[in-house]
Amino acid sequence: MGPREHGGNPKGLRGMLDFSANLNPLGLPPKAKEALAASIDTWSAYPDPHASALTKALAAAEGVPARWIQLGPGAADLIFRVALGLRPRRALTLAPTFSEYGAALAAAGCRVDYHPLQAEAGFALDGSLLPHLEEGFDLVILCNPNNPTGRTADPSLLRRILVRCRELGALLLVDECFNPFLDRPEAHTLKPLLGQFPNLLLLKAFTKLYAMAGLRLGYLFCADRALLERLEACSPSWSISAPAQAAGLAALGDTGYLEESLALIRRERPWLRQQLERLGLAVLGGEANYLFFRYDQPAPLSPRMERQGVLIRSCENYRGLSAHYNRVAVRTRPENERLLQALERALGEAG
């Protein structure tokens, strides 16, 4: 697996049950599907370059001023926009974490320091990061809950990190794309601090929560309007397609779908964790819509799962991890049962 490969990229392995990508198992919201069908005739014209209707609806849904929002074609695009638009000289992120942070920073010519998360502590972010924050850092990037571990950071620690970044004159970018899947998302977001800390950027997306990975729609929050304008200057016009705008606007209004989705994840996650542990797998994290576990046999697990018709996410290409670590999405009960059956057979191959 290459360093930039992610889950949800099955290399032509069609017809397989995909637990490698952490997408909403219910698929696109019904209202988004209807909006896409109804908007087809608009696709031959240029989309609204400001995505005005979507931005206004998103501001209302998230409870932030519209001027604090910047949309982009997916969270990954916005990560690169931050790196290339701000050109930090030195940045800090975690290991393991989402590889696009390091890739974007490297593309911008930035020196990247990695703070290692310790296996002995379950790869949880702790106060050992604070002494690592020193003069010379322009940008710190954290993922909360982290990917691939699904572990959240203590909210008080995040606030201390944010204050320290302000003291250093550094920006703090926190990726909250998986926050809605937490049991108490409001307890783990820094959104209430945006107005107090103009050095704070929050990253979110429609990708995971609304299963809109193929439509590409993400967004940033920041109270520093001048900073957002610098980022916008690095983006081409019409970067948010007409289909993405239509689907995003409709998804925000599909509250029944959202309630059903979150109830499913909160019901299935503890059950699936229990079943993985029953099979002898060490589940190390998983507070969102995916579970992170260790498998200690020498032969990697993911190729054997492919032979069973199921894709899981090997974490071998995450900095600081090996093929002993894997991640699986939380899906519907019938799909989760198929995963477990495949795991039993795959684990039996090693027996």
Automatic annotation (TrEMBL):
Per the UniProt record, the source organism is: Candidatus Anaerotruncus excrementipullorum
Q: Which GO terms describe its molecular function?
A: pyridoxal phosphate binding; threonine-phosphate decarboxylase activity
**UniProt cross-references to Pfam families, sorted A to Z:** Aminotran_1_2 (PF00155)
Q: What does this protein do?
A: Decarboxylates L-threonine-O-3-phosphate to yield (R)-1-amino-2-propanol O-2-phosphate, the precursor for the linkage between the nucleotide loop and the corrin ring in cobalamin.
Q: Which Gene3D superfamilies match?
A: Aspartate Aminotransferase, domain 1, Type I PLP-dependent aspartate aminotransferase-like (Major domain)
Keyword Lyase present in the record's keywords: the answer is: yes
> Which Enzyme Commission number(s) are on file for it?
4.1.1.81
- Cofactor names: pyridoxal 5'-phosphate
Q: What is the lineage of its organism?
A: Bacteria, Bacillati, Bacillota, Clostridia, Eubacteriales
Tell me the protein's name: threonine-phosphate decarboxylase
